Amino acid sequence: MNTPFDEEPHRRPGLLSRLRASFLTGIVVIAPVWLTLWLILSVVGWIDSAVLPLIPHQFRPEQYVGINLRGVGVLFFLIFTVLVGWIAKGILGRSLIHFAESLVNRMPVVRSIYSGIKQISETVFAQTERSFEKACLVQYPRRGIWAIGFVSTEAKGEINKRAETGGGLLSVFIPTTPNPTSGFLLFFPEEDVILLDMTIEDAAKLVISAGLVYPNQKDPTQPPE
């Protein structure tokens, strides 16, 4: 006869519990692979649908193969982009671009749209050599609360001169979770910024995962030793 003080014997999980655990494990394995393939195929299909209508029928591979090959539009787009970039680097290309931009600058609405898109493109694609230098810890939004940031560069010019600090300032980007592409640009005194040993990629993973994935090569789910 069991009493209330007797220890409950260890029970093996039932069939439904084991099936549920196996299902969740399968979702964890399948979801990243499926979402990655879906995203790649969606982008490829979108580029194909936008580029292929511009290509004459005699140059399309399906005229000779008999089937619609996915990714042909991407190939034509890459070749065309490389060709345009090669021409734009030459004297003739720069002259044509300068002439076209002078025409666009005379159009009130088009001028604003073009200048905005050009500035975004140059920032994202043309200046690939510029990137964050280090991951860091800063106290934000108040002292006692710590946030992960990315040091972009040292503050210069008017910002550094007018800031009422005794030393230099660092430009720090504070990302949001789970979307690290949005955030805040803040300027901190150098002494208030703690540089981290983790890489930019590891810090980004920590932000995206909302603190669930710590940088550890042996066990990514555990903090570094």
Features:
alpha+beta, five-stranded antiparallel sheet, 7 helices, 14% strand
Task: Describe the model.
It holds the Pfam family DUF502. The chain crosses the membrane at residues 21-47, 67-88. There is one protein chain. With 225 residues, the chain is of the alpha+beta class. The chain has a domain at 134-208. 47% of the residues lie in helices and 14% in strands. The protein has seven helices and five strands; from the N terminus they run αααααββαβββα. It has helices spanning 15-51, 62-65, 72-88, 91-104, 108-126, 157-162, 200-208, and strands spanning 134-139, 146-154, 169-175, 183-189, 194-195. It has a five-stranded antiparallel beta sheet, with helices on one face. A hairpin with a 7-residue loop joins β3 and β4. α1 crosses α3. The two termini are 49 Å apart. The model has no long low-confidence stretch (mean pLDDT 81).
Termini, distance in Å?
A: 49 Å
Apparent shape: flat
What's the alpha carbon Rg, rounded to whole Å? 27 Å
What is the number of E strands? Answer: 5
Query: Main beta sheet: strand number and arrangement?
Result: 5 strands, antiparallel
Contiguous low-pLDDT stretches (5 residues minimum) are none
Structural class: alpha+beta
Q: Approximately how much beta-strand content do the residues carry?
A: 5-15%
Helix content: 40-55%
Strand order of the largest sheet: 4-3-2-1-5
| SSE pattern | HHHHHEEHEEEH
SS field, number of helical segments: 7
Question: Please, what is the average pLDDT?
Answer: 81
Pfam family, one: DUF502
Keywords: Membrane, Transmembrane, Transmembrane helix
